[in-house]
Structure formats: structure tokens, C-alpha cells
Amino acid sequence: MNRIKKGDEVIVTAGKDKGRRGAVLQIFKDDRVMVEQINMVKKHTKPNPMQGLEGGIIEKEMPMHISNVMLFNPATSKGDRVGIKTLEDGKKVRYFKSNGEVIDV
């Protein structure tokens, strides 16, 4: 079970966007995550009339390593570490380490 999933609200802990929040758009196999409006880069593109693409400079998100983000805890308004525990019925759930609150029910 992953500690961070698609759609989670995360806070960036390192890099040029440190302290910013966003939702996880995608998780890659090589321990990288793409967060909306975080780690934006400018990409120069050539025009392609066959596909209807205009040339120019576009801004897009790039993936960042999963160790540079923490799950956002709304109770404390900070990033928090995540643990995994098994409930009485055998279901695995994620929980915040600081206050023990269960994330997914």
C-alpha cells in the first residue's frame, strides 16, 4: 500500500516550490509524483500544422521525487508522516503519525 495516492493533498518539503500545496495528479513507477501547479517548467515547442499545434513556449508540470512531498494534514495544517495499520476487520488503512487520525475509511 502506497503512503501517497492520486488525488491526495500534499505539501512540498524541498526544492524551489517548498511550502506550496497541491493535489497529486499522477504517480510514476520510479518513485516520482506529479503535483498540480508545482515544479512548473517552460518547454519550447515547434509548430506542427498536421496536429494543429502552435509553436512557442508552454508551461507544464514535471514530476518530482516522492521524498520531496508530505501528505497534508488538515487538522494541524502541516505536512505529516503517514503510517499503515490493519483494522480489526483485516482492512489496511493509512493514518497520520502525529495524531493517529485515519485517512481512508
Helix/strand-derived class?
Answer: mainly beta
Task: Please tell me the CATH architecture of the domain at 9-77 by its name.
Answer: Roll
Estimated share of beta-strand residues? 35-45%
Treating each run of at least 4 consecutive H or I residues as one helix, how many helices? Answer: 0
Low-confidence stretches: none
CATH topology of the domain at 9-77: SH3 type barrels
N-to-C series of helices and strands: EEEEEEEEEE
Termini Cα gap: 14 Å
Could you describe the 3D structure shown?
The protein is an all-beta fold and 105 residues long. The protein has a domain of 69 residues: SH3 type barrels (Roll). Helices cover 0% and strands 45% of the residues. It contains no helices and ten strands. The strands form three sheets. It has a six-stranded antiparallel β-sheet with strand order 6-3-2-1-7-8, with no helix packed on it. It has a two-stranded antiparallel sheet with strand order 4-5. The protein starts with 8 loop residues before the first strand and ends in a 9-residue tail after the last strand.
